[in-house]
């Protein structure tokens, strides 16, 4: 059975005209799917005959809300969604001044092995389909009853390790017949798969790229991020430079501060040297302690000192505001608990 949400709009047109439907049918169905209908029966302007025909080969995919938590501190909402095969993924909706932003998952589990991360414990189960990535936005929006204006691909999984499905998702979520979310309002977070950064730079989609750097040199990065053995920092920075040149989108770097690992003044100075030339922004995140891992976070004061050194060396930096601290909103933590 086919999930029509896995089709790009053009493919949907082709499929429907192939089974004898007029071209405009694609627009109607695409629009219904993106509204989050639960079945073909809800597509009231489509004839019963056509609905029956569709049901022969295709189905309307949905996501079940298995658990939902709302932060009393800031209204952040965390969903544990259940996929049709019983696997679970997490999505988080955050409220900012400029609107709602959703953080979506791209894989069930992850094979990147970052040492501080909960999502990679247990490895990769499978990629999410384009429809499954999209359904997180569709069903969170439906449940919230509000427009979602920004998307970050920063949940469970490595987006660039599920490249084709992520691209299909981006095209569909951007389509004006559907949710119509602009590329400039979408951010992809990657641990740094260099060839795929070049590929993305050539897609002609001005999405923001944020790179999980977490270390100022290969020695430290090798210890905490296995992907670093494959692509070193200088290759990574070169790819980021190309991305910026081709898309005009400024890169930002994520840097989780881990006590005694990457938080020294020396690290801050070295980091400034690494990112300065490509005019990147650094997002400092006090590492979120994960039960199974030995890493400890640094103090707010320590983070501020680190930030000050970056700024003194000409680098823009912010310390990530913590949202949803009372609902374990960091990705991977909830799914693991349920497993
Ligand atoms: N695979 C992608 C996106 C998912 S992870 C990536 O690596 O960017 C989203 C972000 O959370 C990444 O920057 C990741 O390094 C960071 N992260 C993972 N576990 C963390 C933890 N325990 N504390 C702080 N940040 C963490």
Envelope shape? globular
Main sheet overview:
10 strands, mixed
Name of the CATH homologous superfamily of the largest domain: Aldolase class I
Spatial ordering of strands, largest sheet: 3-4-5-6-9-10-11-12-13-14
Q: Rounded to an integer, what's the Rg over CA atoms?
A: 21 Å
H and E order = EHHHEEEEEEEHEHEHEHHHEHEHEH
Measured distance between first and last alpha carbons: 28 Å
The tally of strands reads 14
Number of domains: 2
Query: In terms of quaternary structure, what is this?
Result: single chain
Uncertain runs are: none
CATH-assigned fold name of the largest domain:
TIM Barrel
Question: Average pLDDT value?
Answer: 94
Q: What is the gist of this entry?
A:
The chain has helices spanning 9-18, 24-35, 48-57, 130-144, 163-174, 194-201, 218-224, 227-230, 233-247, 265-275, 300-312, 333-338, and strands at residues 2-3, 58-59, 64-70, 77-82, 88-96, 99-103, 107-109, 124-127, 148-153, 186-190, 208-212, 252-257, 281-286, 316-319. With 339 residues, the chain is an alpha/beta fold.
List keywords for this structure.
alpha/beta; DNA polymerase, domain 1; 339 residues; ten-stranded mixed β-sheet; 21% strand; TIM Barrel; globular; 12 helices; two-stranded parallel sheet; binds S-adenosyl-L-homocysteine; 2 domains
How would you describe this structure to a colleague?
With about 350 residues, the protein is of the alpha/beta class. The chain has 2 domains: about 1-60, DNA polymerase, domain 1, CATH 1.10.150.530; about 65-339, TIM Barrel (Alpha-Beta Barrel), CATH 3.20.20. It is built from 12 helices and 14 strands. The protein has a 10-stranded mixed β-sheet with strand order 3-4-5-6-9-10-11-12-13-14. A two-stranded parallel ribbon has the order 1-2. It has a two-stranded antiparallel sheet with strand order 7-8. Strand 12, helix 10 (about 265-275) and strand 13 (about 280-285) form a beta-alpha-beta unit. Helix 4 (about 130-145) packs across helix 5. The mean pLDDT is about 95. The protein binds S-adenosyl-L-homocysteine. S-adenosyl-L-homocysteine binds next to strand 10 and strand 12. S-adenosyl-L-homocysteine binds near residues 154, 190, 191, 212 and 254.
């Amino acid at each position: 059975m086919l999930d029509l949400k896995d089709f790009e709009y053009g493919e949907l047109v082709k499929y429907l005209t192939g089974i004898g439907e007029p071209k405009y049918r694609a627009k109607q169905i695409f629009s219904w799917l993106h509204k989050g209908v639960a079945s073909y029966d809800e597509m009231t302007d489509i004839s019963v005959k056509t609905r029956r025909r569709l049901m022969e080969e295709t189905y309307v995919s949905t996501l079940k809300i298995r658990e939902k938590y709302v932060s009393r501190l800031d209204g952040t909402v965390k969903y544990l969604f259940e996929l049709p095969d019983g696997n679970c993924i997490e999505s988080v909706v955050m409220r900012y001044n400029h609107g709602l932003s959703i953080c979506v998952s791209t894989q069930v589990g992850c094979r990147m092995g970052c040492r501080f991360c909960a999502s990679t414990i247990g490895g990769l189960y499978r990629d999410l389909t384009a429809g499954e990535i999209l359904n997180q936005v569709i069903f969170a929006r439906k449940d919230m009853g509000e427009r979602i204006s920004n998307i970050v691909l920063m949940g469970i999984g490595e987006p660039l390790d599920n490249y084709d499905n992520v691209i299909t998702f981006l095209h569909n979520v951007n389509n004006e017949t559907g949710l119509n979310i602009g590329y400039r309002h979408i951010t992809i977070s990657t641990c740094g798969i260099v060839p795929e950064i070049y590929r993305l730079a050539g897609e002609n989609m001005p999405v923001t790229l944020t790179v999980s750097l977490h270390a100022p040199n290969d020695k430290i990065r090798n210890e905490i991020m296995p992907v670093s053995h494959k692509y070193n920092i200088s290759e990574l920075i070169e790819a980021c430079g190309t991305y910026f040149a081709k898309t005009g989108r400024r890169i930002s770097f994520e840097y989780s501060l881990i006590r005694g690992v990457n938080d020294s003044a020396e690290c801050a100075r070295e980091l400034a040297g690494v990112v300065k030339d490509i005019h990147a922004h650094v997002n400092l995140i006090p590492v979120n302690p994960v039960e199974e891992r030995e890493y400890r976070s640094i103090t707010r004061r320590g983070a501020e000192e680190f930030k000050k050194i970056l700024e003194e060396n000409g680098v823009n930096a912010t310390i990530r505001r913590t949202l949803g601290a009372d609902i374990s909103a960091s990705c991977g933590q909830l799914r693991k608990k349920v497993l």
